[in-house]
Design brief:
binds NADP nicotinamide-adenine-dinucleotide phosphate; alpha/beta; eight-stranded mixed β-sheet; 8 helices; globular
């Protein structure tokens, strides 16, 4: 088993909240980290600050707005060009319900419902772009940061053109991540690459929660403990296809077990991202 200082770990959305705290912890333990954000200035100041706080010089920053599939493709290609190994991919970046009371439907750069695009589809594409690296680096792990907030996907209204509600959009994107995790784990069985997902903690003190709920319940420390446990601990090394409620293997919304729903989501995602069926 490799020590943390021998591991290369990518965390999307590591400029704030949960991703940033986990990045700081792993940097302090000596990992090579691929940080990611959507704003170059914030990304570079995060990189500088984490280097200064931890003394770790093996930190790299990648900029890509996940609301653009072209930028996601570029992100994957840049990482493949720069690194020969990747042991852990943490798909963490996300947007919540947005400001309370804002019911305006938002679209990604590709014209897709924004939360579906950023929280789920971008990570679907990024994972497949990075899969060759994860496979050759096995044992390796993929962790999708989902949520206990889940809402069944309605394939007749997936882009929420009717009855738009931002928190529903958030919750369906989080269930889509879980459905993806289950399929991916099955596809990767026997390769040494595992895929799991988790609800990190409820209403942590991060900006997405403060913006939508106005108050918080737990600390980002709780979520960071759970995420580190699922992504890196020896105890979870042989788990795959599992949804964790914090550190506890748990059951997601029933639609996650619906093979036909997962097939529809997968086919649509392959089409929307331009990946082929055997991506
Ligand atoms: N907070 C909770 O209680 C809670 C509960 C369950 C699940 N989660 C999940 O935990 C994950 C982290 O959330 P958080 O609470 O830490 O939120 P956060 O503090 O708002 O951080 C979100 C991160 O994602 C980045 N991001 C947002 N939109 C992006 C885009 N279009 N392209 C690239 N990066 C983008 C943000 O960049 P900027 O720094 O530029 O904004 C930031 O780095 C999310 O997947 C969320 O769904 C959170």
């Amino acid at each position: 088993m490799k020590s943390l200082s021998e591991k290369v770990i990518m965390i999307t959305g590591s400029t704030d909240g949960l991703g940033r705290l986990v990045a700081q912890r792993l940097a302090a333990k000596g990992a090579t980290l691929l940080l990611h954000g959507r704003r170059q200035d914030k990304g570079m100041s995060t990189l500088d600050e984490l280097c200064r706080l931890t003394g770790n010089e093996k930190l790299h920053y990648y900029n890509a707005d996940l609301s653009s599939l072209d930028e996601v493709r570029g992100l994957g290609e840049n990482i493949i060009a720069d690194h020969k190994t990747l042991h852990v991919l943490i798909n963490n970046a996300g947007i919540g319900g947005g400001p309370r009371g804002n019911s305006k439907r938002e679209l990604s750069k590709d014209g897709l419902e924004l939360r579906f695009a950023v929280n789920y589809l971008s990570h679907f594409l990024l994972t497949y772009k990075l899969l060759p690296l994860l496979r050759t680096s096995a044992p390796s792990r993929i962790v999708n940061v989902s949520s206990i907030g889940q809402y069944p996907l309605d394939f007749k209204n997936l882009m929420l053109e009717k009855k738009y509600e931002s928190f529903r959009a958030y919750r369906q994107s989080k269930l889509a991540q879980i459905m993806f995790t289950i399929d991916l784990a099955e596809e990767l069985r026997g390769t040494g690459v595992t895929a799991n997902c988790l609800h990190p903690a409820t209403l942590m003190n991060t900006k997405m929660v403060e913006e939508f709920f106005g108050s918080t319940i737990t600390s980002v420390v709780d979520g960071a403990d759970a995420l580190e446990y699922v992504a890196l601990s020896d105890e979870t090394a042989n788990y795959t296809g599992v949804y964790f409620d914090m550190k506890r293997p748990s059951k997601p919304n029933a639609q996650a077990y619906d093979e036909d729903a997962r097939r529809q989501l997968r086919e649509l995602s392959l089409r929307l991202t331009g990946l082929t069926a055997n991506a």
